[in-house]
Amino acid sequence: MAATGAETCEGGYMQIIARKVGTDEAALRFLISMFAGYPLAIFLRDNLHDTSATTKHLFISAVGLAISYFNYGMDTKYLLFCSLVNYIVLTLAGGTGASVIFSFVFNVGYLLVSYAIYASNDYDMNWTTPQCILTLRMISVAYDLYDGHTPVEKLSPEQKSLCFKEPPGPLEMVSYSFFFGYLLTGPQCPLRQYRDYMDGNLLDNESGKPSDTLQPAMKILGIGMIYFLVEILIVPSFTASYLLTEEFAQSSFLYKLFYISLFGRFTINKYVTFWLISEGVCILSGIAYTGKDKAGKAKFTSCSGIKPLAFETALSVRDMVATFNISTNTWLARYVYKRLKFLGNRYVSQIVSLMFLAAWHGLHIGYYNNFILEFFIVMFDVQATELFTKVPVLNKLSQHRLLALVKLLVLKFLMLLFMGYPLVSFVLLRWSKIHAVYKEVYYIGHIFFLLLWPILSFGVIMPRFKAHRRKSKENARGKSGFVIPCTCRNPSQVNTMRGQEDAKTK
């Protein structure tokens, strides 16, 4: 195996510092790289704004490769190799259907082989982390270039806004691949947007000066630091290892469910932290600019990974998913789900998309179990919401004022539990560990979401609900048949007119 950044660092000073602050060396290097993005973004914004795109590409390429080497040492060559292979393919065959197919197969295959060789039985902080981000970026370039060579009338408005005709050059491709704002954790940034940024077109003013990005960037960073403090102070109390202890096994059933719900919530805290820090870097650099709102205030939202307030106040899994990992979900919808429209079945498209997402994360069975459960949980969430909204008795019960607080607490707990239950497998990865936890709660989530609810929903509830709704529509149509289209509202006038109509008929 190639040497890592840790092995190439003389004296092991990073390892010493990591031990003193209570973390491992890979995590420390990762954090340093994330925060280093802020002074780099300021330098890029203030000192290179008026320079050529080539100068910016050189700076970004050099900095990105250095950051990658600092974290992954000579393993950086695998990232660079992937980027250059994609450049060659797009140069030779870019804009063709064959280039899209090759890009998809090569990039996904390259990632999966990397996982097979380098992955361990735990979460890995090695070069495959930025590689999985790069995989999506390279596939999107092939797709957008293909759309640029497709007749305009066949493109959606979104595709029209992202497509382009000229393939990237070698320096541009490396720069785009290694931009420090999204290199390590994302978000995804379309090449067309990246080009606009390099050309100095993403500005909130007409004078050509760099955008005033300090305040919005610091706001996002401030929120990220709150999550960072939670990661340091609270998250260590909710570890995956505790799920495998005898103490957890001997706990009550309700306590186990409560712990799993909190475990899931705090498990994703580190992802939220990194997304917010990365978003702050992108905002500060100016690449996140998306225009102005109705009040004329500049918006920097194109690199958002999460909407913190909406995420924290979500009361359903569907609402939580809509505000979480926004960049990846947008990419998945844009380049997988919507491209499967020809299948003619949205459920099949959703399942294929989620299986792609599982493979993108890795080869462990825990990822696939997580996303299969997520699919059925979201389906339950949508159907249950529809029932409580459209069935009068249930709707009246859910809107009762005296039950408002109870409803709030129950929905929040259920949302956390529905989120935490699949994440057990997402974190533990291996089935032997996953089974050890799920058996302690009697596989309650699998039994309900994969077995009981589909039977009740598609076999009993939904058919009766649809029949009731159909009967209601028929009754409404039947009643409307007795109404004569006139402006009178007096029953005697209506009856008189009906009598006249009957006489005419006779």
Polypeptide structure, described:
With 506 residues, the protein is mostly helical. Among the domains are: 1-201, no CATH class; 345-473, no CATH class. 70% of the residues lie in helices and 0% in strands. It has 24 helices and no strands. The protein has helices at 5-8, 13-21, 25-47, 53-72, 76-93, 97-118, 128-148, 157-162, 170-178, 191-198, 214-233, 246-249, 253-267, 269-285, 308-313, 317-322, 326-337, 346-361, 365-390, 392-398, 404-428, 431-438, 444-480, 491-505. Helix 6 packs antiparallel against helix 7 and helix 19 packs across helix 20 (392-398). The longest helix is centred in the C-terminal third of the chain and has 37 residues, at 444-480. The N and C termini lie far apart (97 Å).
Mean pLDDT over the residues: 88
Structural class by sheet pairing and helices: mainly alpha
Quantity of strands, as a count? 0
- Helical proportion? 55-70%
- In one word, what is the shape? globular
N-to-C SSE string, H for helix and E for strand: HHHHHHHHHHHHHHHHHHHHHHHH
The first-to-last residue Cα distance is: 97 Å
Low-confidence stretches: 1-11, 480-506
Q: State the major sheet.
A: none
Put simply, the count of helices is: 24
Roughly what fraction of the amino acids lie in strands?
under 5%
Radius of gyration: 27 Å
